[in-house]
Amino acid sequence: MAVFDWSTFLADQGHTNLGLPEVYGGGGDVGASIAAFETLALGDLSLLVKTGVQFGLFGGAILHLGTRVHHDRYLAEIASLELPGCFAMSESGHGSDVQSVGTTATYDYESREWVINTPSDADRKDWIGNAAVHGKAAVVFAQLITGEENHGVHAFVVPIRSDRGKVLDGVRIEDVGHKIGLNGVDNGRLYFDSARVPLSNLLDRYGSVTESGEYTSSIESPTRRFFTMVGTLVQGRVSVAGAGLSVSKVALTTAVRHGESRRQFGPPDGGEEVPLLDYRAHQRRLLPLLASTYALHFKQAELVRDLDLVFSGAEDDEQARRSLETSAAGVKAFATWHAVDCLQTGREACGGLGYLSSSGFASRKADAEIFTTFEGDNTVLLQLVAKSLLTGYREEFGDLNPIGMAGFVATQAVSRLVERTAARELWGRIWDEITPDSEEDGDLNKREYQLALFAWREEHVLESAARRLKGGIDDGIDPFEAFNACQDHVLVAARSHIDTRILEAFAKGVELCEDETVKALLERVCDLYALSVIEQHRGWYQEHGRISSTRSKAVIRNVNALCDELRPQACDLIDALRVPDCVLPEFGPGGIVG
Amino acid sequence: MAVFDWSTFLADQGHTNLGLPEVYGGGGDVGASIAAFETLALGDLSLLVKTGVQFGLFGGAILHLGTRVHHDRYLAEIASLELPGCFAMSESGHGSDVQSVGTTATYDYESREWVINTPSDADRKDWIGNAAVHGKAAVVFAQLITGEENHGVHAFVVPIRSDRGKVLDGVRIEDVGHKIGLNGVDNGRLYFDSARVPLSNLLDRYGSVTESGEYTSSIESPTRRFFTMVGTLVQGRVSVAGAGLSVSKVALTTAVRHGESRRQFGPPDGGEEVPLLDYRAHQRRLLPLLASTYALHFKQAELVRDLDLVFSGAEDDEQARRSLETSAAGVKAFATWHAVDCLQTGREACGGLGYLSSSGFASRKADAEIFTTFEGDNTVLLQLVAKSLLTGYREEFGDLNPIGMAGFVATQAVSRLVERTAARELWGRIWDEITPDSEEDGDLNKREYQLALFAWREEHVLESAARRLKGGIDDGIDPFEAFNACQDHVLVAARSHIDTRILEAFAKGVELCEDETVKALLERVCDLYALSVIEQHRGWYQEHGRISSTRSKAVIRNVNALCDELRPQACDLIDALRVPDCVLPEFGPGGIVG
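^ inputs. structure came back:
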């Protein structure tokens, strides 16, 4: 029960509903709500997810998919946690592919009610947070059916427990069972057997039904309607990205401080032993991850700002929304994989002491593990990013079926598919100055050159993926085969796009820094990030004649030199992440105190 | 208590002491004992470690470091688990650097006893399995002191609990606390405050003390004596390597079977959904890991055979022993990192279902996590491998201080340091046939060409690391700085050495296969392993002019083609690993049954 009590405490303090409108007791500030979520993610992750489900997903669905009547009826009770609720979207048979969910909501013309059903076990709602123990209501995503007609997936408010906690008629609930982590969250499965709710329980912002059973919607295309509904949930991905970033900050703070204080092996003459962080191999493990954490920090800040602009209505055109959805998907994938990396590398860098639960790695490793899967499997998300790019944001963002994309691409000219980046002009100039086999190591630390290398890769990979996809279809290959033959290539296109956006955000952040000393330090951290990424892809850059073998070796040399240069300031860079001591282990002269 | 009861059951069945001599109730078969350990590693890993400590480490230390009197006194009771015991080597302040342990065993001339002491908290024995609850005795590694003289680290049998389980005078025991995993093992900390044991409790195979306190040893050099003693423990590393390999087999069996049965997304025309494993991205995640598992399987079999030869005395020259120690260190590092990879990738590939504890990933991820640290931190082990290579096996294997190595290397000619591999002759021929920019994709599947690429890299990296190390010292750079400036390079040398040995073992294993159909299949798996490794290092191969950019792209293409080709047989390859159903989750039409 502890986690629910913590949630109540936070709700009582007014810390968890910054994103809800002020009239219902919220803070009316979406950006601040994400910042609060990122802060909470430094601590216990079951609490994070439990509150995320209640205030972000359950509350967010009612706010964004419901209308005035729903807001009046539910939001204040959600904000105060009087009404604990669930967000019942995923099903056992369809985790990623929400458009295909099997749950039905059929309109009963006589009683003027919705009848909710789970046709088969594969259609049960699965992994639903707050379902197994605390939830009293759920927002249920189901196929809306009037008469013989299916109007596609819509959201309904369905009570599941009485005020006293008894499961209601027509509802069956199971616990999903013990999990690797997040066992403080009561994930459950929901089955509906003719559960009945009034007509008005349809969240009808994008589609409503009259008493006589007539369906109307402001959005004509059912596909577009569906993706508009799902699109309002982009906030969840931005939140998880921020949480992943917070977890990586805790992991690296632990590992770097341990590496600074723990000493092993001394000089042969018997002098003092050497701090782990003085060893190049140790620097190589931790400092590029630290640089990536900084890079993601700047990108995440940009993403939260964009989310706030779109959701506050300050900037809500279609293009801004699609670009936000694409960034959120990509950054979520990157930040959560990064969290797993930082936890694994950090634990190993702390040796046995990192294996003690008291070091903090135990629960974070177990809990954050699922970040790479929930709110969208990372590989599926990268596919969505690629799709946005390959269709020039013209196809609906959320449509996950990758096979359709191949068909769309085939109908377009490659030149239309791949938008020319602004970087193109930059290249002309940069490539004149710096040839692929230039011997000048110093060039590598020029930001413009780094940006040009990133952007060039992005465009080249995207364009060749488009050509291959199109070529396959033109040659009459089956669309699945055509897609599948370059799926790896398509994923690289997504990755290189996100890589570039991250470097741009970091570079912009550094530019804006007003303190010259701090700025100079950040410049070097940004160099380390950029060169580490180029180092990872140096095989590709050589394959495409963009850097020579000589320059490729220089990249490795420069990464080493940057590790060396940044090592004395590693602890300052960590301190600046401001992870509070209360979520960290204690450190002594031998590192983490066991 | 469960895990101890399981251990007792296994001991009663005679399954756990295959490695102990027959006269004491054992099986007298070292190779079989490792095979048993590898089998046990398919199941519960706390049980594995608990029995490993008892029969492998505790029993092994008494067997290898003790003499007849100790064998007679202890081995039968160890084999039957009447005497549960500990292996007390690591200390809080010195995990990896055993030569520097602080615990002392001082000879008391009057009482003819050893007085065991823990001088400071940093010298407490830490992480000792069987210590916190069950152990009645411990083999304690301590500095042997007679009069004023320290004869270096030796092992002593020290009782720690009475038969009724009461902690004895002079001994203090703490639990290390809750851990990420392996909580079925009672890891503890031991402090000694003038604990007294008789003279004969010194395990005196390599050094003994007379009643009058005179020290004698068959090995004159104290350093060599120490490393001979520690060397007998190579069995632990071979065992952990095998356990890591078993864990990776379970993880991949789960993930591949899930990928075969779970379907997501269908063709746009609404046909049947596609099994996950049909997607290239999914194949790319799992099949190269499967190929590496096969490769490691063959290398591990070779390692176990070598261990058996050395320990049975069939092949016990210095060179065979050092080569075994080097292989064991490298394969342990590779196999345990591989296990972590397979668990992480496998869990992600199973999505949410992999997050349920019932899928088996939960406990294995938590338990196997520490495999990369215990029995030698993997990075430290790779450094040992590099040291063996760089000193031509002339320096003591176990001496971990990397800084001394730089000094040794400086005194030698590079040509003496880097042994010319037999592959050299091969190259002349292969390079004549296949030029770096040949356009023939087919060349890539020639085993000789793959072996030549691996061996060429190995020798090139090692030679250049030796040159840099030597160059640094010759230039008068401080030995630590000289070592540190190429630590990353030195680690690459170790890795490329192990890569090559693994490919050689796999290739040899395929050669010996008598069934032509199976052999043909294994050839392709071996190709996938070899080309995946070359793909990882294609940046390096291009930097060194060994493959052209054209050929580098062909490597990627061939890895894709091999994934495609092997996909239909993925389940056969998994079945052949023979992971028993009882350690796997249940599979249904939707994949893992949750």
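Chain B touches chain A through 75 residues (CB under 8 Å). The two ends of chain B are 28 Å apart (CA to CA).
thumbs up if we can close this ticket
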